[in-house]
Write a structure and sequence with these properties.
Blueprint lengths: L7 E2 H8 L4 H9 L3 E3 L2 E2 L6 E2 L6 E3 L2 E3 L6 E6 L29 E2 L8 E7 L2 H8 L7 E7 L5 H9 L2 E2 L2 E2 L4 E4 L6 E6 L6 H7 L5 E9 L2 E2 L9 E3 L2 H7 L3
Parallel strand pairs: 9-15
Antiparallel strand pairs: 1-4, 2-3, 2-5, 5-6, 7-9, 7-17, 8-9, 10-14, 10-15, 11-12, 13-14, 15-16
Bound molecules: uracil.
Length: about 240
Amino acid sequence: MAERKGPERLDKLIAAQTSLSRREVHQLISRGQVVVNGQAVRGFDAKADPDLDQVTVSGRPLALKRYSYLMLHKPRGVVCATQDRALPTVLDLVPPPLRRSGLFPAGRLDKDTTGFVLLTNDGAFAHRILSPKSHVPKVYTARLDSPAGPEVCQAFAQGMRIGSDQCLPALLELVDPSGLVARVTLREGMYHQIKRMFGAFGIGVEELHRDRIGGLDLDPALPVGNCRELNREELEKILQE
Ligand code: URA
């Protein structure tokens, strides 16, 4: 979560929080329809503190939040990018009332990976959960095409080398006796990392799903393809293990 930053340009805040353009916000300001703490705003450069000020636009209160944090249950076939020429992106799944300027996925899942994606416009928070230095664990369930054994668990735990990349130690737990379902905990996110780690043993990953980021599980009540806002308590959980 971002630190408090104090007042910001109101036109920018309102445009980021609504479907209004800055020009439309200026028109409303000219008509006296933007009110901060009971006073109509004068001047397009007026500022407001999203953490403290009460803002109404055309008589409707606006919950000004500087940053937005969404939990998305990513389906297969959707790319973790802000735009793509051919395929739907995770941002296409955000319903209009939750759309904000600057939203992006904090960490990428492959097109065929499902599960928990955090969308935010808070770059500092995204950096905190993505940086290997922060050690925020991400937990995945992998369905394998051939069984993994103890030697694979040991290699994951030691920190594998895949190509020119040196991985941090990772936890591999075999969920059932077949060795075909595995729970993997990573504290970093390199390109195709889990597939490449299993691939080093000739094991293919048939399905991959992210269950958890930090101490927060994907909400089991959130249908595939849906997203919802996270509350403060949930955000704090992400930063706990
Ligand atoms: N590792 C992978 O190989 N793919 C993902 O989507 C995430 C982790």
